[in-house]
Amino acid sequence: MTVDMQESCRRATAAQEGELARTLAAAFADDPVLGWLLPAGSGREERLRRFFKIELRHMAFTRGTVWSCEGASGAALCMPPGAWQLPPAVALAQGPAFGRVFGRRLPIAAAFQAAMELRHERRPHWYILAVGVRPEHQGRGLGTTLLRPTLDRCDREGLPAYLEASSERSAALYERLGFDHVRELRLFGSPPLWLMARAPGAER
Asked: Whole-angstrom Cα distance, residue 66 to residue 72?
C-alpha cells in the first residue's frame, strides 16, 4: 500500500536530532553492512543511535538538509554538491566518538569508509547520505516521499544523485527511482555495498 505523504514531508531541525537518530537506528537494525561492522551482542542499537547522531550533527544538519515525515517515522540525510566528505578537522575531533561506536572494529570501519570515499562520485552531485524508515512504517512509500524533494531538485538543476545501497531491498527501491548500479564494493569479506547514481530526469 502506498500513501501520499508529500504534505507531511518537511525539513527537520537540529532539535529533532535525538529522535531521528533513534529512527535511523531502528531502520538500520537489520542492515547487512552495518550488522557486519557492529555484530549482534555488541549493543548494536545504542551504537547505531550514536553513529547516526554523529552523522546528523556533524554532516546533515551542519552542511546539508534533513527531511523527515509525520511523527519522525523516517528521515533522509541529503548533502549538496561539494559537501559529501566529513571535513578532516571534524573527522579528527570525532575520532573518540567513532571509537565508542565501532570499538575494536574501528580500523575495519575506517578502511571501509576510505574505500567508499575512494570510489565516490567526483562530478558535482547531491549525495544521499542515509535514508531510513522505522520498520513499522515501511512498505507505505515513505522512503520515496523522503527522497522526492532532493530528486526533484536534481532534475531542476541538472545534477546527478549518488548513494550507497546496503541491502537488496533498498537497491530495488533506488532502481525504481532511476538509480543505476555503478559498482559493487566488498572489503574483508563484507556483505556487498552497491554504489548507485541517478542521472537528472531518470525515473522508472
From this structure: 11
CATH code for residues 10-198: 3.40.630.30
Residue 163 and residue 173: Cα distance in Å, rounded? 12
pLDDT tens for 50-81 read: 999 999 999 999 999 999 988 899 999 999 99
Domains in the chain: boundaries: 10-198
pLDDT per position as a tens digit, 19-54: 999 999 999 999 999 999 998 776 888 999 999 999
Residue 3 CA to residue 146 CA, distance in Å, equals: 12
Residues 6+ apart with CB under 8 A from 49: 21, 22, 25
Q: Do the Cβ atoms of 125 and 195 come closer than 8 Å?
A: no
Whether 37 and 116 have beta carbons less than 8 Å apart is answered as no
